[in-house]
Design goal:
By secondary structure, the protein is an alpha/beta fold. Helices cover 46% and strands 17% of the residues. The chain has seven helices and five strands; from the N terminus they run H-H-E-E-E-H-E-H-E-H-H-H.
């Protein structure tokens, strides 16, 4: 039997099929089996994934129905030009997230956590962008969950050091998305997928 891709394994797992580890694909099989075993039933609902950034926040709304392939309902990149003041950029992030929240009946919102950065100013900027997105969601009283980039890549690609190109390809494969996704949108979709793949009922929300 040929080696199954991570995409094929996730598809089988979402359909409730057994995914036995193989000699050639033990790492990928483990990545698929471990998170899915944490939940008793497949995740159902709409998840807004957010990849926060001051000049390019990624947004993606994905619908999950037990046993079916996840479906991308909407995605966008909130592009803000460098010359636009930080306050205005944060306002644009807030407005864009609010638009997504108002447009869809969301179940959960998943954000990518800020990675460790040595530059204090960069950390402040990233924190402010996250705050703008979180505030927009919190005002609608929606459950918010956060995931480290390493965990997102492990859950979606099966490798914590996967490149942005690998992430984008895998996300598009899992969603059956024909059009090319931008990296920010793919990362946002990846966070939403990670949440659905690893979520357990009763986990603590932010």
């Amino acid at each position: 039997m040929g080696r199954k891709s991570v995409r094929d394994m996730w598809k089988a797992k979402l359909a409730g099929q057994e995914v036995p580890p193989t000699a050639h694909g033990c790492r990928a099989a483990a990545a698929v089996t471990a998170p899915m075993d944490l939940q008793r039933t497949p995740f159902d609902g709409l998840v807004l994934g957010v990849d926060p950034s001051l000049r390019g926040t990624g947004l993606a709304v994905i619908e999950f129905k037990g046993g079916k392939q996840p479906m991308m309902l909407s995605c966008a990149t909130v592009k803000v030009k460098p010359k636009v003041p930080m306050a205005e950029a944060l306002a644009e992030i807030h407005r864009s997230v609010t638009t997504m929240v108002d447009r869809f009946t969301l179940t959960h919102v998943a954000l990518e956590q800020t990675i460790y950065v040595q530059n204090f100013q960069t950390a402040q900027i990233l924190g402010a962008a996250r705050g703008a997105a979180i505030t927009a969601v919190a005002l609608h009283d929606l459950p918010i969950f956060e995931y480290a980039p390493l965990r997102v890549k492990q859950a979606v690609v099966g490798a914590g050091r996967a490149s942005k190109e690998q992430m984008a390809r895998t996300v598009m494969g899992l969603l059956g998305h024909g059009a090319q996704l931008g990296y920010d949108e793919a990362d946002a979709a990846g966070v939403a997928l990670c949440h659905a793949f690893t979520w357990r009922e009763g986990v603590k929300r932010k």
